[in-house]
Amino acid sequence: MSRINLVLGVTGSVAAIKCKELTRALVGIERVKEVRIVFTTSAKKFVSRDDVREIQNELGVRCYDDDDEWADWGKVGDPVTHVDLAKWADVLLIAPLSANTLAKLANGLCDNLLTCLFRAWDLRANDKAIILAPAMNTAMWNSPFTKRHLKSISEIASSAKDDAIAGFIVVQPIEKALACGDYGVGAMAEVSTIAQLVALTGEEKHTREFLDSAVMYPSDYD
């Protein structure tokens, strides 16, 4: 079993409060060699400073935000953070993926460290994978824009396949009582589900039953 480097992108959804729980699960996966986290500015509204300190100090995970994009760059030839992270990582997991960041990714925007990292990702590499775990209000999830954006990314990421085993995976959000008080589909998948997908990404050990319950297929975007 090859070990992987993983970047966890955390965006501005209330599900970002699960960041510490998700990080703990990820570092506990045997095949995960190292985890690094990239926070968007909005994500930091949901993740406390205490949680970030615990993630860094107790879990040993390096955390980045938009300020780090320029921290090591002063002249031509200096390191470019988003490029270096895109080269370093074998798996890019964005969990939670907000409606705002989804729209940015689908349209190729590069306005923060995470979107630049996504744009720099080598979609042609057979040994690299992207996992997206959307999280948003039910009305936003049901918006035709959401399926259009997911379909656009899926089509561009040519490695998306019918079996959804490698290359590009969208984790099906779940139905539950949401933070806004509504009840419906849109909540981020359970941490255990996301961790299991990470553990098996690129490994042909998925069961059809598990995939059908956890993953969106290209036909789901139509």
UniProtKB/TrEMBL annotation:
EC number: 4.1.1.36
Example GO BP: coenzyme A biosynthetic process
Sorted UniProt keywords: Coenzyme A biosynthesis
Gene3D superfamilies reported in the protein's UniProt record: Flavin prenyltransferase-like (3.40.50.1950)
SUPFAM superfamilies: Homo-oligomeric flavin-containing Cys decarboxylases, HFCD
Superkingdom, natural source: Eukaryota
Pathways per UniProt: Cofactor biosynthesis; coenzyme A biosynthesis; CoA from (R)-pantothenate: step 3/5
Class in the EC hierarchy, top level: lyase
GO cellular component term of the entry, any: phosphopantothenoylcysteine decarboxylase complex
Record GO terms (molecular function): FMN binding; phosphopantothenoylcysteine decarboxylase activity
The Flavoprotein domain, residue ranges: 5-196
Family to which this protein belongs: Belongs to the HFCD (homooligomeric flavin containing Cys decarboxylase) superfamily.
Name the record gives this protein: phosphopantothenoylcysteine decarboxylase
